[in-house]
Amino acid sequence: MLILLRNLFLPILILLFVSSCNLTSERRDPNVLLIVIDTLRADHLGCYGYEKTTSPNIDKLSKRGFQFQNVYCQMPTTGPSHASIFTSRYPRNHGVLKNGWILSDTFQTIAEILKSNGYTTSAIISSFVLSSQFGYSQGFDNYDEAFPKGSSTYRGKFWEGRKLEGEFDQRADIATRKAINWMRQNSTGKFFLWVHYFDPHSPYDPPQPYVKDFLRKDMSPIKKIVAKYDGEIRFVDDEVGKLLNEVESLGLDSNTLIIITSDHGEGLGQHGWSMGCFCMMNRPEYLS
């Protein structure tokens, strides 16, 4: 079963894609692989009609399932939106109205439900925004929030009034390697694995060759920013492809439910929304 969802929230778009690649008729509890791509607009994906080649792997997967056109994120902010994803509650109900606010352990999360039903639960997160100190690790046997030194794309020393002691985030390729290593060690029992990719969140700084694929010197400053955003999407899409290939290589595709979603989209200057919350503040070279 494959499901693909598109979400419009003011200028914000979101994607949700669910795939269980070749589920057999045998009634077994499937593994659950939840992939959350931070700040991803659905209308910048080929499967939603985008003309640039940003998402060949997601596009390929989308052809094998269902694509939904209308779904709404509950708040276009990483923390509150994830709290809603994991509790199925509106922000006004779970109380996380801003990044850095704590999700109370009085709420039951999907990880807690699956763990109580015999699942091994694991999370590979890629941003301090989803740190365990904010309550997002509830129900997880493993919560990987350690980012390698030098991995952060965010250059600030403070976030939401807190001084950062370590790295703020990590690249998608690092998250993929961690997720693959975890699956190889836990492929015999049923599992719930949440992989959070912080790319394509600002600051948009895609590695080569993803920059040259979309960026041209004659572009306007705004179009250059959008081109870098597209490059980040292509980078993450390649990492998603590696992760899905590993699911197949391990023989897990016959009994794994795959969900690809975003917590929210990105304004990209539309309707008065910024190009990216860290963009101008920390990376002035964006306009060059």
Quick summary:
This protein is of the alpha/beta class. It has helices at residues 56-62, 78-87, 91-94, 110-116, 172-185, 221-249, 279-282; strands at 2-9, 12-20, 31-37, 66-67, 120-124, 142-144, 158-159, 162-163, 191-197, 256-261.
CATH evolutionary superfamily: Alkaline Phosphatase, subunit A
| Architecture per CATH nomenclature, i.e. the level-2 architecture | 3-Layer(aba) Sandwich
Regions with pLDDT < 50 over 5+ consecutive residues? 1-15, 277-288
Per DSSP, what share of the residues sits in E-state strands of 2 or more residues? Answer: 15-25%
**Any idea what the radius of gyration is?**
18 Å
Strand segment count: 10
Question: What is the CATH topology assignment?
Answer: Alkaline Phosphatase, subunit A
Label the structural class: alpha/beta
What's the tally of helices?
A: 7
Shape assignment? globular
> What is the rounded distance between the termini?
44 Å
Number of domains: 1
Give the topology string: H per helix, E per strand: EEEHEHHHEEEEHEHEH
Largest pleated sheet: 8 strands, mixed
Question: What order do the strands of the largest sheet run in, or round the barrel if closed?
Answer: 4-1-2-10-3-9-5-6
Assembly state: single chain
Mean pLDDT: 86
Helix % is: 25-40%
